[in-house]
């Protein structure tokens, strides 16, 4: 964790933090609903459905890293998979959206499961 | 880039809708077949819901990946959170750096945060203005 002293030396812009977090969480919740539709069509049940969700959420985060974070982050000299240019903690980026989209996922999953297998 | 991400997302949704309809038709057909078979011979029991055909499963997964790609490409550009990096980017790029993919400047773009420090009004020659005012009063 960064200390108070480090925040004084390298101040952080709250507006940018909010903007980035909003972009990521919007993407996560929207894509989670789409994954629910896909899982319902495939007719997944119990653990395989949750496994499907986790695999595709990780895929989304990887795509987001590749297209939005990596081009400028690598150019500025940060290592691979280092998101410190745009996000305060690594945990916030890689795991923050996993549980945020779970409710929307289950909603559309059950809905489309019921629709397809009427 | 915006037309690319939008068309990718639309194409993915079309594929997903097609897969959804195919899966629905498949399950309806399966249940119909099972019902007719059981009416023909009561001993022949068949599971009503067999697994989905491979092409529908593949289409669903491909559609999901395509939609995800389109959504990721449609997200807003990120902004650096460290103040020095962010201010340096604004200094170098200006409004161009805050443009979204559709070519408009973001609504919450604030511009140079140090504008107040960088411009200063010049000194006012108050004696000259006072003299001009006095002459103007005399002319009235």
Q: What this model shows, in words?
A:
Chain A: Pfam families: EMC6. Chain A: This is ER membrane protein complex subunit 6. The complex is a heterodimer of chains A (118) and B (140). Chain A has one domain. Chain A is mainly α. Chain A is elongated and about 60 Å long. The longest helix of chain A has 30 residues. Chain A is built from five helices and no strands. In chain A, helix 2 packs antiparallel against helix 3 and helix 2 packs parallel to helix 5. Chain A starts with a helix and ends with a helix. Chain B has two domains: 75 residues; 65 residues, no CATH class. Chain B is rod-shaped and about 120 Å long. Chain B contains five helices and no strands. With 140 residues, chain B is mainly α. Helices cover 64% and strands 0% of the residues of chain B. About 4% of the residues of chain B have low confidence. In chain B, helix 1 runs antiparallel to helix 2. The longest helix of chain B has 39 residues. Classes of the chains: A mainly alpha (118), B mainly alpha (140). At the A-B interface, helix 2, helix 3 and helix 5 of A face helix 1, helix 2 and helix 3 of B.
Mind sketching the topology for me?
The complex is a heterodimer of chains A (118) and B (140).
Chain A: H1 4-9, H2 14-42, H3 46-75, H4 90-95, H5 102-116
Helix pairs in contact in A: 2-3, 2-5
Chain B: H1 2-40, H2 54-74, H3 83-93, H4 115-118, H5 126-139
What fraction strand of chain B? under 5%
Q: How many domains comprise the coordinates of chain A?
A: 1
SSE succession of chain A: HHHHH
The level of helicity of chain A is: over 70%
Total beta-strand segments of chain B: 0
Number of strands of chain A: 0
What attributes does this structure have?
heterodimer, A: 118 residues, mainly alpha, 73% helix, 0% strand, elongated, B: 140 residues, 5 helices, endoplasmic reticulum (chain A)
Concise description?
The complex is a heterodimer of chains A (118) and B (140). Helices cover 73% and strands 0% of the residues of chain A. Chain A is built from five helices and no strands.
């Amino acid at each position: 964790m960064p200390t108070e002293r480090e925040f004084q030396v390298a101040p952080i812009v709250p507006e940018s933090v909010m903007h980035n977090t909003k972009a990521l969480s919007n993407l996560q919740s929207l894509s989670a609903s789409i994954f629910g539709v896909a899982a319902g069509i495939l007719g997944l049940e119990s653990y395989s459905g949750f496994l499907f969700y986790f695999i595709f959420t990780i895929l989304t985060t990887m795509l987001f890293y590749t297209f939005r974070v990596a081009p400028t982050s690598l150019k500025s000299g940060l290592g691979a998979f280092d998101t410190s240019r745009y996000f305060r903690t690594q945990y916030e980026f890689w795991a923050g959206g996993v549980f945020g989209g779970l409710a929307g996922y289950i909603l559309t999953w059950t809905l489309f499961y019921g629709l397809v297998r009427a | 880039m915006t037309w690319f991400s939008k068309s990718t997302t639309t194409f993915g949704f079309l594929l997903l809708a097609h897969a959804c309809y195919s899966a629905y038709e498949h399950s309806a057909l399966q249940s119909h077949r099972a019902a007719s078979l059981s009416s023909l011979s009561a001993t022949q029991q068949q599971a009503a819901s067999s697994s989905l055909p491979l092409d529908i499963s593949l289409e669903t997964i491909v559609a999901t990946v395509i939609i995800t790609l389109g959504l990721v490409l449609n997200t807003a550009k990120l902004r650096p959170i460290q103040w020095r990096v962010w201010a340096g980017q604004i200094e170098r790029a200006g409004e161009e750096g805050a443009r979204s993919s559709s070519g408009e400047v973001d609504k919450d773009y604030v511009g140079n945060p140090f504008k107040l420090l960088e411009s200063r009004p010049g000194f006012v020659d108050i004696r000259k203005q006072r003299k001009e005012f006095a002459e103007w009063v005399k002319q009235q």
